[in-house]
Amino acid sequence: MKNTGKLLSLLMLGLTMFGSFSCTNDDEEDDDDIIVTPVGEMKTISGRITANTTWSASNQYLLSGFVYVESGVTLNIEPGTIIKGDGVQKGSLIVLPGAKIVAVGTPDKPIIFTSNKPAGQRKAGDWGGLIILGKAPVNKPDAVIEGENQSKFGGTDAADNSGQLKYVRIEFAGIAYETDKEINGLTFGGVGSGTEVDYVQVSYSGDDSYEWFGGAVNAKHLIAYRGLDDDFDTDNGFSGNIQYGFILRDPAVADQAGDSNGFESDNDAAGSPATPQTSAKFANVTIAMASGTPNAKFASAMRIRRNSAISVYNTLVTGEWPRSAVRIQDETTIANFTTGKIKMDGNTVAITGTPKEGVIEGTTLALFAPAASKNKVAAVADLKLSTGYNSITAKPGLLPTTGSALLTGGATLPAGFEANTVVGAFGTTDWTDKWANWDPQNANYEIVK
């Protein structure tokens, strides 16, 4: 009788906790009431999602192979949901043009895309990545997305809407689908300005942390943490505004197949005059590198080349970049700078070491830092940065200290940005609080039973 009583008590507790309520079926659209799947189920997802679907925080999801969200379909992901990628099958999530992903977490319950390996065994390239494709303009006919090499993207709708990413972490992505050909942590192809991207952290990517191929999507509050190749890579006519970005590199980790830069930007692979021209604008970015001898494959904090015309405002560049801090490469791109297509205002460059091509490469310091531009070349010691501002062994010290010139030394930002004169990603507010993770290697992502 005692055992029966205990069993009945446990049954009643389970019914109280898990009950039943109306929600969207994880596998297909269904208006009927369903029984909630027990907490702790791992659902393997493969193939194509062809009906509106909700992924619940009550479960975890394992991406097996290329998983496609089809045109006309919306994938909703609840706050706190954990999605893992299968390494053997190169699991990746690909949102096709006309589809939407609505992944809106909260500071306390971010949505996490991560490795399927246990704590302590994770590494860059454990799975594929997140690819979002849209119908906004690109400058490459019949564009096929890098990494997956099958799906086309782009169109004529600059305001196309591919959904929302908010309070999302993407960790240990970037698997090589072929030798030296990897998927990025987060890839945008022809994504339009109707898409919302805010508070996203890409950590330990096995290729670029973020790459934009054309499109006009805007984004704010982006973290690129300890990636392998480039951090913010822009190509094929990308024209969006990116504000508040934090890049932190491990000096020991760089791409051995090429070179690693903070920013890398091309109009296209040939440096052609194809339109729309790559003309993205970045404001309030911090580029940092932890202390230590940099790997020989590191190059420049910013590498702008191949007829790109991106502009950079109120950005802080630190770290021991071996080649240069700002590299404006090749005649066409240098012409874009001298004629004002590339604008750089309010930036502070304070790198350490002795870069072999100088701090500014491709133009002169006088042209880079005329008084009206508010660009400066400074020493790190004079910036009043927080202790541990470039730490990769604990949460970095993100906020400049009282009296730092970074708090007020920036330029007036162009239309389309939140107005401020802060140089770098942070003023007096730590926008990474709660939702970001500086040690995902040891995070506990085990299923809760």
Automatic annotation (TrEMBL):
Keywords, in A-Z order: Signal
Organism this protein belongs to: Dyadobacter chenhuakuii
Region annotation Disordered: where it falls in the sequence: 257-276
Presence of the UniProt keyword Signal in the record: yes
Annotated signal sequence range: 1-22
PROSITE patterns registered for this protein in UniProt: PROKAR_LIPOPROTEIN (PS51257)
Full protein name: T9SS C-terminal target domain-containing protein
